[in-house]
Amino acid sequence: MQDFHGTTILSVRRGAAVAMGGDGQVTLGNVVVKHTARKVRRLYQDRVLAGFAGATADAFTLFERFEARLEKHQGNLMRSAVELAKEWRTDRVLRRLEAMLAVSDPECSLIITGNGDVLEPELGLVAIGSGGPYAQAAARALLEHTALAPAEIVARALMIAGDLCIYTNQNHTIESLG
Q: In what order do the strands lie in the sheet with 9-14?
């Protein structure tokens, strides 16, 4: 799986409650050009959370394509993700996009890649981007050893990732469902 530098996206679930958050830092090479980007969005009648890592223009293209799939399949997250991944892998233009998507709804959390992968990580923890492994480790510890709500776990884990990853800042966007 390709590792994208410049972001951290994390999704945590506990039962039907799910939260997704991302940092706000955008870099161009080794220079920070923006601190307040919104990399996490609500899609399909505010019932699906989606976050991206990678090139911004590519991510917006994927958001649009994914939202169209959600509309076509009445919000069925898994089917929409598989259809997007198939299109992404086979379309000559889409194949060149450099981004990954993390998507969640009350039933499942997925990672969608340009390689045609639709992955459902264990424990309902999704983490992508350069700070993803730090956030995932922190979230797993908090999930297993506290009773914190998913949004609070995401907030704390993103703070830890921001302290460790030079491509992640402390300006967070966090969205919750359930």
A: 126-128, 9-14, 17-23, 172-177
